[in-house]
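Structure first, sequence second, as always.
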């Protein structure tokens, strides 16, 4: 592989005009496609194979035209102190609001609180529900404005009015200011690491072009492939981080090759052949981790993973082609590594300069490997302890900041009707095979009334055919509580007995039940997903490092960093520790997809640093250095760049912490802290300590496996053979001249 990529790098350097033109054309094409594509709505949320999804599908089939997937809005009214909502003036305000809402073009129905018993027992709180003919994210802006204006007019009469429901849901904007700060930090780190503005600008430019192509393509295909806004945000987050890092490694290796006296075209080829090989395999681990999300069998998660994986592929291709091309344009503005001022050169000549910090650190770890290993493992283990108290759920209006009208509406409903009112359960009774459907529905309702934690059970509502009924159950506890989850399981357990007695099937659905099923599905998929991703990457790393213990150590180190990162997420977002520092206004359960998502993404990113750092160690070991010397050599050449890459990635991910969307904020924090743990504790401390303890055993591989594995030549051994061929050719030429 090294020889192929070497030739590719030289070709891109020589044909830089052609290469640049291709990438600019692709960026333009993607941009035009994104600009001309119809705007995408919300991605359809489905969880195949779960009871909640089966019930939802049955409702669409048996209750046609009911807009089961339509958006909903709730206007919640609270009377002023000393008044009640049943007072004449307040009733008139509500009636006017209901009439205005009913005139909307996308409105299916509007409820009158005084005829639907939607007034609290003390008479101070009432609400009206609005049902629309399209999902919340797909509603016209005029429809949202009409809902807000109706609330404003009612509020002007002196009532406290707030609006909840998904009708106000709109595309969440990532923290733009935070992203800019993240990129600015990345730029500063690049300048310090690479020594010039031009060299620092190359990784930024190529990463932005790669992300532009990836995100624009996602936008262009969003409507056709049913991709949500979170998909492009994830692609932007990961594509930008890996795009900068991959380009940084190649530019850094290019400067190192220049320092060895090679001409610029040769240096570009060798940088692509060596660092480019590591980029390919690092990118493959990220792609495997992201594409592997398809194992979960949740379409939304699969699409997010595949879209982000596609953006990573673009980042790898740009690093291998466009970076060498831009190095050709930069010429002498990218200086060789280690080029110092005259005073520094004089000190170096006199031997008065200290070894680099990476070399001193590696030497320290080699002297005390057991102590460093023990301290690193115990430290990460302590940080991971909160992960044992992990509670999973999906965000609802109760997790919104208290400054939002959705959160205030949620609190008003809890105050007036109880905490469980915000998470009603919908019971679907499929009595098609029952001899007496109405009796079956009555049996179901009576059985649920006797269960613990039930406040209200509404009478059954039948479809036109009379074979399917809907029953609404109001729990006594809030939607995200364990008591509500226990109630869902209790109702489902009763369903087996009811099926035997009445031949009617009982299914539980609704947002709360969907969230419970989603969390359970992700939990069930975590171990198979972990096995698939880690297994495939383990095999890949055996090929790269030609070792058994090094990939095993890499996988175990990853588990440490991801568990510590999950512990930090629980401490901040669930327990509230230091939550004010990153703007977490409301603590609660951790987003259901967070563990499996972090496993996938963090594993891919962790292997980046493993590949970049340890391939340089193996390169030194293969070329004759002792195991200890190889560790120091690897740190001498790679530690500075790995640290810079980690800081850049943390800055990029950290920029998303300022997002108003709780899911994006949590993902940004989780990935940033995971990169910190993995790069600075696992790869910089635990990895060299383990390698020092193992010595030559670290690079052991059974002979039969060594013969069976393909030789991908990540260390660039083929390039050394190429050098030997060139030397032989020069010797032959000299002999001919002498003759």
């Amino acid at each position: 592989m090294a020889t192929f990529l070497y030739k590719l790098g030289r070709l891109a350097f020589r044909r830089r005009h052609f290469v640049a033109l291709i990438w600019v054309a692709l960026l333009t094409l993607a941009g035009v496609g994104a600009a001309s594509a119809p705007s995408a709505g919300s991605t359809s949320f489905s969880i195949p194979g779960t009871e909640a999804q089966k019930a939802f599908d049955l409702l669409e089939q048996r209750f046609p035209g009911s807009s089961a997937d339509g958006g909903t809005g709730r206007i919640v009214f609270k009377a002023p102190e000393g008044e009640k909502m049943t007072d004449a003036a307040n009733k008139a305000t509500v009636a006017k609001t209901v009439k205005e809402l009913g005139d909307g073009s996308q409105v299916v129905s509007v409820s009158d609180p005084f005829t639907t018993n939607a007034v609290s027992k003390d008479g101070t709180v009432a609400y009206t529900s609005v049902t629309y003919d399209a999902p919340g994210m797909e509603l016209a802006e005029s429809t949202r404005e009409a809902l807000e204006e109706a609330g404003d007019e009612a509020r002007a009469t002196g009532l406290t009015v707030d609006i909840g429901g998904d009708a106000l849901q709109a595309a969440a904007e990532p923290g733009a200011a935070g992203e800019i700060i993240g990129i600015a930090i990345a730029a500063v780190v690049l300048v310090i690491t690479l020594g010039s503005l031009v060299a620092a600008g190359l990784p930024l430019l190529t990463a932005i072009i790669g992300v532009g192509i990836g995100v624009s393509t996602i936008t262009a295909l969003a409507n056709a492939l049913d991709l949500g806004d979170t998909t492009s945000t994830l692609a932007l987050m990961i594509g930008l981080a890996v795009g900068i890092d991959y380009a940084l490694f190649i530019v850094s290796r290019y400067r190192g090759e220049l320092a060895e006296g090679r001409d610029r075209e040769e240096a570009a080829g060798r940088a692509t052949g060596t660092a480019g090989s590591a980029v390919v395999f690092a990118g493959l681990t990220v792609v495997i981790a992201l594409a592997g999300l398809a194992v979960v069998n949740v379409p939304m998660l699969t699409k997010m993973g595949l879209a982000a994986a596609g953006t990573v592929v673009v980042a790898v291709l740009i690093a291998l082609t466009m970076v060498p091309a831009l190095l050709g344009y930069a010429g002498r503005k990218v200086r060789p590594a280690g080029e110092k001022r005259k005073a520094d050169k004089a000190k170096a000549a006199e031997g008065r300069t200290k070894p680099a910090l990476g070399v001193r650190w590696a030497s320290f770890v080699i002297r005390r490997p057991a102590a460093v290993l023990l301290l690193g493992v115990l430290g990460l283990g302590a940080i991971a302890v909160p992960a044992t108290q992990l509670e999973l759920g999906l965000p609802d209006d109760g997790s919104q900041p208290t400054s939002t009208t959705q959160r205030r509406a949620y609190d008003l409903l809890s105050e007036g009707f109880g905490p469980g009112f915000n998470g009603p359960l919908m019971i679907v009774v499929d009595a098609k095979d029952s001899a007496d459907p109405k009796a079956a529905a009555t049996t179901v309702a009576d059985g649920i009334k006797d269960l613990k934690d039930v406040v209200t059970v509404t009478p059954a509502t039948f479809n036109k055919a009379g074979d399917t009924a809907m029953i609404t159950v109001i729990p006594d506890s809030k939607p995200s509580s364990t008591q509500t989850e226990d109630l869902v399981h209790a109702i489902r357990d009763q369903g087996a007995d009811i099926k035997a007695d009445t031949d009617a099937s009982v299914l539980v659905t609704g947002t709360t039940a969907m969230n419970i099923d989603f969390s359970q599905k992700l939990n069930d998929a975590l171990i198979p997903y972990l096995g698939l991703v880690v297994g495939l990457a383990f095999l890949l790393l055996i090929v790269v490092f030609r070792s058994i213990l090094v990939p095993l150590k890499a996988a175990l180190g990853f588990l440490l960093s991801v568990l510590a990162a999950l512990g930090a997420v629980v401490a901040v977002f669930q327990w509230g520790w230091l939550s004010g520092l990153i703007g977490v206004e409301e603590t609660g359960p951790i987003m259901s997809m967070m563990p499996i998502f972090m496993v996938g993404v963090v594993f891919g990113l962790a292997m980046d640093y493993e590949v970049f750092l340890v391939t340089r160690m193996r390169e030194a070991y293969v070329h004759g250095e002792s195991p200890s010397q190889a560790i120091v050599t690897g740190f001498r050449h790679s530690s500075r760049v790995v640290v810079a890459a980690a800081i850049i990635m943390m800055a990029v991910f950290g920029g998303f912490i300022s997002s108003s969307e709780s899911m994006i904020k949590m993902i940004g924090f989780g990935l940033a802290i995971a990169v910190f743990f993995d790069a600075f504790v696992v790869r910089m401390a635990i990895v060299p300590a383990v390698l020092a303890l193992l010595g030559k055993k670290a690079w052991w591989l059974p002979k039969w496996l060594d013969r069976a594995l393909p030789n991908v030549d990540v260390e660039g051994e083929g390039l050394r053979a190429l050098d030997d061929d060139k030397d032989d050719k020069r010797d032959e030429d000299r002999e001919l001249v002498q003759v």
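Margin note: The longest helix spans residues 511-545.
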